[in-house]
UniProtKB/TrEMBL annotation:
<feature type="active site" description="Nucleophile">
    <location>
        <position position="181"/>
    </location>
</feature>
<dbReference type="GO" id="GO:0005737">
    <property type="term" value="C:cytoplasm"/>
</dbReference>
<feature type="binding site">
    <location>
        <position position="71"/>
    </location>
    <ligand>
        <name>substrate</name>
    </ligand>
</feature>
<dbReference type="InterPro" id="IPR013785">
    <property type="entry name" value="Aldolase_TIM"/>
</dbReference>
<feature type="domain" description="Dihydroorotate dehydrogenase catalytic">
    <location>
        <begin position="52"/>
        <end position="326"/>
    </location>
</feature>
<feature type="binding site">
    <location>
        <position position="294"/>
    </location>
    <ligand>
        <name>FMN</name>
    </ligand>
</feature>
<dbReference type="GO" id="GO:0005886">
    <property type="term" value="C:plasma membrane"/>
</dbReference>
<feature type="binding site">
    <location>
        <position position="178"/>
    </location>
    <ligand>
        <name>substrate</name>
    </ligand>
</feature>
<keyword id="KW-1003">Cell membrane</keyword>
<keyword id="KW-0288">FMN</keyword>
<dbReference type="GO" id="GO:0106430">
    <property type="term" value="F:dihydroorotate dehydrogenase (quinone) activity"/>
</dbReference>
<feature type="binding site">
    <location>
        <position position="240"/>
    </location>
    <ligand>
        <name>FMN</name>
    </ligand>
</feature>
<comment type="subunit">
    <text>Monomer.</text>
</comment>
<protein>
    <recommendedName>
        <fullName>Dihydroorotate dehydrogenase (quinone)</fullName>
        <ecNumber>1.3.5.2</ecNumber>
    </recommendedName>
</protein>
<keyword id="KW-0665">Pyrimidine biosynthesis</keyword>
<dbReference type="InterPro" id="IPR001295">
    <property type="entry name" value="Dihydroorotate_DH_CS"/>
</dbReference>
<dbReference type="InterPro" id="IPR050074">
    <property type="entry name" value="DHO_dehydrogenase"/>
</dbReference>
Length: 334
C-alpha cells in the first residue's frame, strides 16, 4: 500500500461523515490552495517525462485527468504537479447550472467504483473563460469538455455547444464534445448520426475536437458514430464515459447498485477497453483515441494502450489510488 492509501485516503474518505461529494470539494479546495513551493515538491515526486504527440498536440506524458474532476478549473496548476500530462476541465455548459439534488455521488468501495448523477453542476462557460484568461497556460495541454445546458431543448443543442465553444476554444488544446453523460436527459441521443453530424459540422475547425462516447453503445452504433467523426473531421474519440450497467459489483455494494447515475471504476475496465479496441480496429488506427474507464493500476493503463489508446485518462482510479497511479501509468510509456 502506498502512503496515499494508508494515510491520505482514510482521512479523505472520512470527510463530511463519509459523504463523497464533501470529500471531493475538500480535496479540490486543498489542491487549489497549494503554494508554488509545495507544487514544486510534488512535481519532483510525481512528474514523468514521456513525451508524445497526438492530433498535433505535444503531451509531456500520456496520462491525463478525466473530465468532471475539476469542472470549473479551480485547481488547474496542481494537476501537472501530481503527474498529469494533460488536464480536461468541464464538463461546462453555456449557462451556469446547479446540477441534480444531493446526494448525487456515491463510493462503492469494495468494487473500487463510483456512481454519480451530478448532472453537469458547473459555473458556466463564461466563468471558466474568465478563470482561464486570468490564469494563463498551465504547462500541459488543456482539454475543455462541453455539454448541453439542461434548460436548452435538444433541438437547440448545437447553438448551446457553439456558445460555449466561442467563449472557450481560444484556451483549449482540444475540445471534448460530451454527448455521453447519462445524467442530462436526452443527451446521449446526440451520439446519433444526424445530430452528431450537425454538432461536428458547427464545431470542427479552429482546434481539435474530440467526441466522448458512452460504453453502452452497441458496436454498430459505435461504427456509425465513427463514420460521422471521420467524415466531419473530428480529431479523435474519448472512450468511455460512465455506464448505466451495474455488472461486476461486489456483493457488499449491491445495496447501492440501485442509485441512479453512471457507474465508473473497476466494473468498467473491460468494457471501456473493448470499446477502445473496437474503435481502433474499425478506423484502422486513423482516429486517435483517449482511453478512459476503470484504469485502476498501471497494468490497466498498459492494456488500454495495447488496445489502441494514444492517451489515457484517470478519474475513479485516482480517487482510490492517488497520484502514485498517475506516475505508474505514465511510466508504462517510458
Ligand atoms: C463524479 C464524476 C463526475 C464526472 N463528470 C464528468 C463530466 O462532467 N464530463 C465527462 O465527460 N465525464 C465525466 N465523468 C466521467 C469520467 O470522466 C470518466 O469518463 C469515467 O468516470 C470513467 O473513468 P474512470 O473509471 O477512470 O472513472 C465523471 C465521472 C465521475 C465519477
Amino acid at each position: 500500500m502506498t502512503f496515499f492509501e494508508t494515510a491520505v485516503r482514510p482521512v479523505l474518505f472520512r470527510v463530511g461523515g463519509g459523504d463523497a461529494e464533501q470529500a471531493h470539494e475538500f480535496t479540490l479546495k486543498r489542491l487549489a490552495g497549494l503554494s508554488p513551493a509545495v507544487r514544486a515538491v510534488l512535481r519532483r515526486r510525481y512528474a514523468v517525462s514521456a513525451p508524445t504527440e497526438v492530433f498535433g498536440v505535444r503531451f509531456p506524458n500520456a496520462v491525463g485527468l478525466a473530465a468532471g474532476m475539476d469542472k470549473n478549473g479551480v485547481a488547474l496548476p496542481s494537476w501537472p504537479a501530481l503527474g498529469f500530462g494533460f488536464v480536461e476541465v468541464g464538463t461546462v455548459t453555456a449557462k451556469p447550472q446547479p446540477g441534480n439534488d444531493r446526494p448525487r455521488l456515491f463510493r462503492l468501495r469494495d468494487s473500487e467504483a463510483v456512481i454519480n448523477r451530478m448532472g453537469f453542476n458547473n459555473e458556466g462557460a463564461a466563468a471558466l473563460a474568465a478563470r482561464l484568461s486570468a490564469l494563463g497556460p498551465i504547462g500541459v495541454p488543456l482539454g475543455i469538455s462541453l455539454g448541453k445546458s439542461k434548460v436548452t431543448p435538444l433541438e437547440e443543442a448545437v447553438q448551446d455547444y457553439l456558445d460555449s465553444y466561442e467563449l472557450l476554444h481560444a484556451y483549449a488544446d482540444y475540445i471534448a464534445v460530451n454527448v455521453s453523460s447519462p445524467n442530462t436527459p436526452g443527451l446521449r441521443t446526440l451520439q446519433d448520426k444526424s445530430a452528431l453530424a450537425s454538432l461536428l459540422g458547427a464545431l470542427v475547425g479552429k482546434v481539435p475536437v474530440l467526441v466522448k462516447i458512452a460504453p453502452d453503445l452497441t458496436e454498430p452504433a459505435v461504427a456509425e458514430l465513427l463514420e460521422v467523426c471521420l467524415a466531419y473531421g473530428a480529431a479523435g474519440v474519448i472512450a468511455t464515459n460512465t455506464t448505466l450497467s451495474r455488472d461486476g459489483l461486489a456483493a457488499a455494494d449491491q445495496p447501492r447498485a440501485g442509485e441512479a447515475g453512471g457507474l465508473s471504476g473497476r466494473p468498467l475496465t473491460e468494457r471501456a477497453r473493448k470499446i477502445v479496441h473496437f474503435v481502433h480496429q474499425e478506423t484502422g488506427g486513423k482516429l486517435p483515441i483517449i482511453g478512459v474507464g476503470g484504469i485502476a493500476g498501471p497494468d490497466d493503463a498498459a492494456r488500454m494502450f495495447d488496445a489502441g489508446a494514444a492517451l489515457v485518462q484517470l478519474y475513479t482510479g485516482f480517487i482510490y489510488r492517488g497520484p502514485g497511479l498517475v506516475r505508474a501509468a505514465a511510466l508504462t510509456r517510458t
